Amino acid sequence: MRLTADDVRALLASKAPSAQLVLHEGVFRVLGEDELRSPRYAGALEVAGRDELRARFGDREPSAREYEEIAAGLHVEISNQGG
Length: 83
Known about the structure:
The protein is an alpha+beta fold. It is built from four helices and three strands. The protein has helices spanning 5-13, 33-37, 50-57, 64-81, and strands spanning 20-24, 27-31, 45-49.
């Protein structure tokens, strides 16, 4: 399980309310607030929120390198948590 720039892109592109990138059963998923609170995703590790990431870039689209850097940083955070 490796977090990729595509996972980060999917998070930032999501239209779901309060979208979160989560790790659930070894798979990264982008979930909206309702999905995340459902029993199906109980125990999912919340990795990053779209709104928080979007605030870092404002209206501009991150560059390919920035997507890679975000993914690498998040991957380190997950690894440090034992995920």
